[in-house]
Amino acid sequence: MGVLGGVLMMVLGAVWFVGGLAAGYIFFYAPILCVIGLVAFIKGIIDGNVAGGGGRRRRY
């Protein structure tokens, strides 16, 4: 995913959740999407993968 994908997922989850609250609904997937986005964001920073795709490959 990369850093940008993680940020996009967190923003989408936040907008979805706030929009649902404004309409009187609670969507349970929106916070899960934010958590998945946070994991992708952190993983992208650690791997040096900003825009998705290959990033830095580790050799073992």
Number of DSSP helical runs? 2
Helix content: 55-70%
- Distance, first to last CA: 22 Å
Q: Ranges with pLDDT <50 over ≥5 residues?
A: none
Number of strands: 0
Which structural traits does this protein have?
60 residues, mainly alpha, 2 helices, elongated
Write structural notes for this entry:
By secondary structure, this protein is an all-alpha fold. It has one domain. Helices cover 68% and strands 0% of the residues. It has helices at 2-23, 29-47. Helix 1 (2-23) runs antiparallel to helix 2. The protein is elongated, with a radius of gyration of 14 Å.
Secondary structure elements and pairings:
Blueprint: H1 2-23, H2 29-47
Helix pairs in contact: 1-2
In short:
The protein is mainly α and 60 residues long. The chain contains 2 helices and no strands.
